[in-house]
Amino acid sequence: MNSKNLYIFNSRLVTHVVFWVLYYLFFSVIWSTSHGLFYSFYLEFILLPIRIFAVYITLYLLLPNYLLKKRYFTFGLGYFLLIAVSAVLQRLFIYFFYDQLLLANTDTDFFSLKMLVRAGILINTSVFLLLSFKIFQLYLLEKAKNEKAIDSVLEIKADRRIHRVDTKDILFIEGKGNYSTYNLMDASKITAYGSLKKALEQLPENFIRVHKSYVVNKNEVRSFDSNSIQINDAFIPRGKSVADDLLVD
């Protein structure tokens, strides 16, 4: 499973934009106050940047650097401080841009503990919801990765026989018309009927197409330049559209 398959139109940006628009509309409606929908939409609009800030700090800083590395205490401390700071910011925005500016209510208390706790709970709910989705996404990707690792033996039909080859023993594949030649670690070759595209579909993600006629195991790449890729003693032509980061982990 590719991570892009979990996004709308295979785009992370589109998925995130759609989510936040729906989030904004949904909570603006369900948290509608006695003042009417305009006030509710306005309030959610000024608070949305704080929610986004808290969510992305959690997903792209705290989660990969602390929680996934089993640094639980540091994650917990960072998460608590993030929610606390976000709650203060939310209370600040409500006090100055809603209570004072829109409602002209000067009787509210900015340092109300009750309001700060309420703000923290609401922000935590949003962050926890998105964190749960992200962890579930990582679980699906890891599960797919493990399943692919278990099923690493490729069955290749050639010369009226079925050859069982471990994918890690494949150096590169050369395509010629409707035939694909598998070049193996022991210097042997297996030529099978089938397009290069079909051969690539059966291989794990460490195999990439670097030329219209070649697929390589990037784990076996020794060197490369703008024109060719070296695997063992073979130099394979490199397409102009192949970026350097595709050839390295």
Helix and strand topology:
Layout: H1 12-30, H2 37-67, H3 72-100, H4 113-150, E1 153-158, E2 161-166, E3 170-176, E4 179-184, E5 189-193, H5 196-201, E6 207-211, E7 214-217, E8 221-224, E9 228-231, E10 234-237
Antiparallel strand pairs: 1-2, 3-4, 3-7, 4-5, 6-7, 8-9, 9-10
Strand line-up across the major sheet: 5-4-3-7-6
Overall pLDDT: 88
Helical stretch tally = 5
How much of the sequence is in beta strands? 15-25%
Total strand segments: 10
C-alpha-based Rg, rounded: 27 Å
Helix content: 40-55%
> What is the 3D shape?
elongated
Distance between the termini: 18 Å
Q: What's the SSE pattern?
A: HHHHEEEEEHEEEEE
Secondary structure category: alpha+beta
Spans of at least 5 consecutive residues whose pLDDT stays below 50 are none
The main sheet comes to: 5 strands, antiparallel
Overview of this protein structure:
The chain has five helices and ten strands. Helices cover about 50% and strands about 20% of the residues. The chain has a five-stranded antiparallel sheet with strand order 5-4-3-7-6. It has a three-stranded antiparallel sheet with strand order 8-9-10, with no helix packed on it. The chain starts with 11 loop residues before the first helix and ends in a 12-residue tail after the last strand. A hairpin with a 2-residue loop joins strand 9 and strand 10 (about 235).
